[in-house]
Amino acid sequence: MRNIVVSEFVSLDNVMQAPGGSEEDTEGGFTHGGWTGPFWHDDIGAHFFEEMSKSDALLLGRKTWQIHGGAWEPMPAGDPFADVLNTMPKYVVSTTLTTASAWRNSTLISSNVVEEVRSLKAQPGKNIVIDGSSVLVHILAEHDLIDEYSLLVYPVVLGSGKKLFPEGLRVHLRLIESRPFPSGVVLMRYARA
């Protein structure tokens, strides 16, 4: 059985929205996009390569899939991270997309999400990674389908935005790793208790 690993950038107040750029996700009037930039360190990039080496599939919500695909699909071969993401199987959960052809090696999941994800977990293979995808993460957390949270916690409080954990859901976790980076970001890995 495969594990589902939620890998997120989060603020100290549990916000995961628009970490990469100011225009990335302004839903709900969010104006703090790009909040991770000042804290970048090469060790964070090394962490991503390590995490992806333990994975063989991505599971994404529509918005995150479109943002990632728009950035990575057009990149020419030879970029180490783009090569990994473009060749890896991807599953996009959406009720509005009619095709997943915009990003190579993608499969559309448009109904029975919980059952489809359970089926993916039951297949042999490495970890399945989710990043971004707040609505999908909430659904999977509510159905106890997330095995691990790999969180890069940033030393910033944003005050508003999309939250990693859904309101009212109680989740019991156990710490499996904690690693600080020189920029003040801390990797916190948690598994189900």
From TrEMBL:
GO MF annotations in UniProt: 5-amino-6-(5-phosphoribosylamino)uracil reductase activity
InterPro entries hit by this protein: DHFR-like_dom_sf, RibDG_C, Riboflavin_Biosynth_HTPR
Bacterial bifunctional deaminase-reductase C-terminal domain ranges (all copies): 4-187
Xref: Pfam families: RibD_C
GO biological process, any: riboflavin biosynthetic process
Transmembrane regions: none
Protein name: Bifunctional deaminase-reductase domain protein
Taxonomic placement: Bacteria, Bacillati, Chloroflexota, Ktedonobacteria, Ktedonobacterales
